[in-house]
Amino acid sequence: MARTSPDHVTTAIPARAGVSLKLDHVGEILNGADIGFFEIHAENYMGDGGLPHRMLERIRERFPVSVHGVGLSIGGDGPLDGAHLARLKAVVDRADPGLVSEHLAWSTHDHTYVPDLLPLPYTEATLATVAEHVAQVQDMLGRPILIENPSTYLAFAETTMEETDFLAALAARTGCGLLLDVNNVMVACTNREADPDAYIAAFPLDRVGEIHLAGHHEDRDAAGRTLLIDTHDRAVADPVWALYEATIERAGRPIPTLVEWDSDLPDWPVLAREAARAEEILARLRPAKELRHAG
Amino acid sequence: MRDDTVSRAAFLAAVSDRSAAVPAGLVGPDGAPDALRFQVYRNTVASTLTEALAASFPAVVRLVGDAFFAAAAIDYSAREKPASPLLFRYGASFPDHIAGIASLAAYPYVPDVARLDWAWLQAYHAADAAPFGADDLAAVPHDALAGLRLSPHPAMRTVISDYPVVSIWAANRADETEAAALPDQSEDALVTRPDIEVLVHRLPPGGAALAEALASGRSLEEAAGHAASIGGFDLGESLSVLLRAGAFAKPTP
User: Fold this and answer.
1) Do B85 and A50 touch (CB under 8 A)?
2) Mutate to test the interface with B, among A154, A160, A228 (most CBs of B within 10 A)
3) Which of A195, A189, A192, A208 is nearest to A248 (CA)?
4) Residue A3 domain flag
5) How close, in Å, is residue B170 to chain A by CA atoms?
6) Which of A174, A238, B159, B178 has the largest CB neighbor count within 10 A?
7) List of residues 6+ apart from B41 with CB closer than 8 A
8) ipTM for the assembly
9) Number of domains in chain A
10) Does A114 contact B154 at a Cβ distance shorter than 8 Å?
11) Is residue A2 one of the residues assigned to a domain?
12) How many CB atoms lie within 10 A of CB A86?
């Protein structure tokens, strides 16, 4: 099918705030939204054609786009699904994205897909497998990708490495970048009773190409301990905003930041306000000449 | 292998089946196994599959209600696992599953409504193609009409039903709160997407048979002969509906 060339909009993702693209919002977005970029879940655009493809073209004509895969099972212990990798390449070819990312997680085993991002133990053996998979994806796409830190609810007794060391080693070994999900840091650290600030301090921030923010649900486990659940169904929590601000200050540079909201979708102005809040924090570190919203 | 190694197969079994044991090597903040926290993964998987099916079968949700639908979806997902990360491809056999639910026996049209929801979703994600229209037919030389073979449009689907499936489906996809009067005769559905919007049409008698025969590669004459055994079939009427709906694709040069 003929595609409108998006050559009048840059491909590169600016160091601004973006939001997850939802088809419900496209009308209002095209009516004049001022958003740095839009992120799509790759799998939602893996049909053969129709409305999702058309809306993506419309958005891409006006905005930079990042592609975020949720189904490649990079952390799986078997071979990657070649058919799914080919579908990801087709989406990337169509969307011409500034960034492509996937998760440090698994979701497929023995040809069964589990619709969740499941955790893996951090060992030399899993590092070798994940590195091989990341290299395979990067070879197929002909570009580096970003790998995202997971939200977790349990740890593996067999783990021998810190998650931050695992990700740093993965980046060093494959040349991949990292996607730092600050909400996932808050969720995972709270759930394992670790210090989120210490996690950020240990994170290889120089490899971070994008940050994610999202809402979570606060629950209690059987012993009455706080259990945070990564739900993406509400506004970003204040402690996550504070951790984000500290992260950006520690990094010393503005980093493209995405607000994710994937269920119980808000009206567009609510989501746009979340992006504006991230934009304000980023603007403090952006060189004056790049300021788009001075005053 | 050490005792605390968690195999992917064991994790997968535990996340998919609430009665399966939680692997002992998965621990909470105190370093002890924590089956309750593992419920978060089970809940996410179950609710994601239920939500995916609900998104794919909205008219069925409306007909049977959220709670009944969720129970049917949980039951289905316990037997039928997604084979791919494309959740809009999950649920092809859900209409057959619904047909086997004993407590729905008094509502025998629900499986056909599910088939129409599924046909709509396939059309929504189908490849784009220009339809073969009435003008294209008019350009076919008269002596070539009988042997004409048409390619089905990638979005074209039919649902043959003993019930007024189109009327029931339409009443349950619209934001209507009042029950519309339903016809008592059966309806066959044609789903097309000539451009970006998915369209659902009622087919005249024999129209579905004609469409399916043409889609399977039979010539116009052969397909018309096949459909002629159905009472009330009118070739001109059926062909006109199919062409106006965009059931066939323009040949690619």
Assistant:
1) no
2) A154
3) A208
4) no
5) 20
6) B159
7) A116, A118, A153, B15
8) 0.93
9) 1
10) no
11) no
12) 10
